[in-house]
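User: Show me an example of a complex going from sequences to structure tokens.

Assistant: Sure. Here are the input components:
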Amino acid sequence: MVVEWTRRAAEAGADLAVFPEMMLTGYPVEDLALRESFVTASARTLLATAELLAVERLGGIAVVTGYLDRRQDLAPRVGRPAGAPVDAAALLYDGKIQATTAKHHLPNYGVFDEYRYFVPGDRLPVFRMPADGGPVDVAIAICEDLWQDGGPVLAARTAGAGLLAVPNASPYERGKLGVREELCVRRAREAGAAIAFVNMVGGQDELVFDGGSLVVDATGATVASGPQFTDALVVADLDLPAAAATPPAGTEPVDAGDGTTITIHRLALEDLGAAERWPVTPGRGEPGDPGAGLTSEPPQGPPGGLAEVYAALVLGTADYVRKNRFRSVILGLSGGIDSALTATIAADAIGPDRVHVVLLPSRYSSGHSIGDAEDLVKRQGLTARTIPIRSVVEAFEAELPPIDGLAAENLQARVRGMNLMTLSNQEGHLVLTTGNKSELATGYSTLYGDSAGGFAPIKDVPKTLVWALARWRNEQAAGRGETPPIPENSISKPPSAELAPGQLDSDSLPDYETLDALLDDYVVRDMGAAQLVAAGHDPGLVERVIRLVDGAEYKRRQYPPGPKITPKNFGRDRRLPITSRWREDLGR
Amino acid sequence: MVVEWTRRAAEAGADLAVFPEMMLTGYPVEDLALRESFVTASARTLLATAELLAVERLGGIAVVTGYLDRRQDLAPRVGRPAGAPVDAAALLYDGKIQATTAKHHLPNYGVFDEYRYFVPGDRLPVFRMPADGGPVDVAIAICEDLWQDGGPVLAARTAGAGLLAVPNASPYERGKLGVREELCVRRAREAGAAIAFVNMVGGQDELVFDGGSLVVDATGATVASGPQFTDALVVADLDLPAAAATPPAGTEPVDAGDGTTITIHRLALEDLGAAERWPVTPGRGEPGDPGAGLTSEPPQGPPGGLAEVYAALVLGTADYVRKNRFRSVILGLSGGIDSALTATIAADAIGPDRVHVVLLPSRYSSGHSIGDAEDLVKRQGLTARTIPIRSVVEAFEAELPPIDGLAAENLQARVRGMNLMTLSNQEGHLVLTTGNKSELATGYSTLYGDSAGGFAPIKDVPKTLVWALARWRNEQAAGRGETPPIPENSISKPPSAELAPGQLDSDSLPDYETLDALLDDYVVRDMGAAQLVAAGHDPGLVERVIRLVDGAEYKRRQYPPGPKITPKNFGRDRRLPITSRWREDLGR
């Protein structure tokens, strides 16, 4: 990948190519960072890449790329073992690794656990490279280094760098693109340097990296920007200040150069007081803290927020399927909106011919359910079949003692889940789970029933947003003169699990506008009961919903992963004990 | 709890009562630490406890207890927000909170994530309390503060404290008791002070806190020790040196006393250079680092290691049932050793009358399977029933396209799981999952089949240890003149999943002695492929087992929790991505 894209950069006339954080390993690597063989493989791949670039006659381009390494040239400090893993970046040039550096600010909140894995860097490499208008100084910082005050940004200014190259692995959440852009503008002005913000693209388990790379000049003006959700070469022609004749202020000269080749200097971050900074506590909303996103403000991104969310779900699903080497998916189609949207996302991700759907009617399925499901199949050209569950349910009932209520409802959902799992085992499809975030929050789902599956595309999508995305997808199609993929009736009819006669979601849950607003405050903003009531939520509902959410932790623990799109997803972002006597007190 | 046990301490003549870390909240609280209402509730409960102690005429006993608080009297430092959560301890006396402190060394490896939640303390409180031989100085440190070199232990020495009171929440793992004892001896000598090591008791999700509290004098001699796995009052009569006439060296006097009541001093840890210490990187095996346990040495604990492990499994199971308010459990009985041991643990945990077992014979179940299961039921007096799965399997097969191989095997396992879940929903039992660690490692289990359930008692028990525990439990019974609870045939027969005719585990897996040794090196010690081969494992088997283990990550992600007993369990201890292209290279 690095060699291939460096060639494209060379063809576009680039002197410098910057790649994302942990480009060689993917992110997050989790406990693989603690496995010696894995770290060694990353370090070896870096060396091989440097050599291959030279073999491919690309040694004359400076390449900055993220990778995983162990502590090497970084000065040892008390209590920090030598050889501990670092979230590293390297400068490759002339077939060699010219300089390496390690991320200084390690995020350890939300979905990030970097204190578990890494020790921080304490040197900022500044390299002097030849350019048309004379040599320029380029500094390297990594991801969180840009989000936190002080440290590398300040160091880049002190060093007088003309450009700050920043490899990133910044996961998508709604509206974050705009936040990143504002950050780059602010930091460019603070550093007095242009910034190349280069972000990873692709899905890995529950994270979707959305790209949206960006180059701003030292005044904060955007010079170039890349698309979201797709690999791209972003080319920027920067007019950088020529480097001073003497090495950058405060640096230790490592190599002396004549301006025709690359030379390296390193700035000790301790000298700037930055090394004393304590890791930011999660969710405190400090300026420059991405935890500030936890306040769940409305998206500040570009208009078309629904397009962005939808693209994240499609990429997350496509990459889970592809990277785990599945060729097709299978899911149950109920005629309702959740499975309709999930099937549509899957069809957009891997093509409708590879989306297998199963209609699993029960004795309680209404005529419109089957009709709506068949309509969706026809609109999209999905591969469909019907497997009635009645006879299996009856076979269970014949062997079991009399069952009723939830047990009887769950049994139907589980027979459906088991049919899908059996077809998955026999035919090799990945089972997609169709539950939304509102259901997952309240436990309105059946363990091993509708929650069965390997990946859950709309796991982090509240029900109200499910409807909005369905409408948006239909409008998009209509605007292009295509058949809207989702039957209007699936969007407009009142939601029902159809596990009992005449059952509606509204029998057991409040309307979804009210519920989703409350869930956002409780789950995403982490407000306590008294705060929720003070914020205007109905006290009775607050009590009931908190009880539902807290009581469903065991179900969430066994739920498959799905793409994160909100500031706090169920999964890496929100971690609670199952066993807990704590109950929120309404203060009444 | 604090008031009740303080009364018992008073009745035993105590002047000082020490409780575990996070006594008021339990441990770990995970993201509840970030919820304002929860932290406030903990802080309020502390105050209420102090007042209640006075009301109950227990104000004259000094009480040290762990709890959750937010940063208060701790001096603010750059980048550490005020009001951030701390893992705290308090001294209660005379109806008031006399002093508070916060854990200084925050563990962030293995099962611990304290950098996500807490900021560290930087003051060591030393309090002077009246005693028979004149006033004595007592210092407070918390759990990890004792495991790490420097910091509070050194500060206690500098302060000239006679006793170091240490609240702990130290989770069980095999052989850790002996490690803790050695630690206390070493630290007592270093600090020149007696140590009261007070550990939590009880199960919470996948952790079991085993108690085993300990009091050693300043020479390291054990003065008193408490039992494992059960709440107990440990009384020690210590002959402590009288406090110096002047306040302890290096402390800031907070209150001046005349020796007849408690006075407080605080020692700044920065002055000892301890605050600069970087959090220990996981698994590096530094001296005093509990990560050293990751080397999986043979238990150093007392003889009778099997008794200890068995007790941990029983307590973990009993507390999961009780604390989650279940009254009974249900599990499938196959006649094999895993379900037999799980049923026995459950019967020992909550009584055989509350253990419901279901025989779920299929067309492939052998006569001895049913016989062995029935024998176990009779030996223990469990509540049993039989639900054949054949008719349901046939009903599925009638609706589905032809299935074979794994799909047909998994279907049987899932019909069993679904029967148990339906009975759970109808009758309110907790479903116990019967899989062992060797199965979970290699993926030799069916998602939503035998892996269905809320709690998995032997999840962290390798198959060879399953047999050893079963034999041990039978011998214990025989030694007491009781009927051995587990049929000998379940222990001695070759293991089989019985999902196909004549199937044996040995058809698809190597013998369990070989497999478990390899799994221990790969999973617990985190050795790479080349290291495994160098350690003497068969290269072909290494390749195959690594492929199995890596490929089963998605199954483990949806598995229920179970009690940790080894240095590295599947769960909080070992965290890997599902989506990963990395494959270990054998270097051949």
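The lines above are the inputs; the final block is the predicted structure for all two components together. Chain B touches chain A through 101 residues (CB under 8 Å).
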